[in-house]
Task: structure prediction
Amino acid sequence: MRVAIPSLDRLADVLGLARSRRIGRSDHIGACSYTVHGAGCRFVSDNGIEVDVDFAADGSAVFDLWRLRRYGLSLPDPVDVTDEDLRSAVLSLQPLLTEVRPGWFSVSG
Result:
């Protein structure tokens, strides 16, 4: 039996819900599975696309190059690039992306 997922005001709320045991640490929501880990959560769509993020204290999603690479490799037409190319691509997206700590990035705003 599936339990209804309480509404989320922001994606980071899944951590608090899992920690308070209002939802499981892993389950399915619609066409997506999730697994809560440490300071973040890994989401995988039914077609295998993976998004893994950690959450900062303010609830914003943060990611590093390893997580970005895993996302690229999970796409229907996988994309595999070097760390150097990933870092260049992420830095070229500033100010849309902000480096919140060395090697970790978040969407600005």
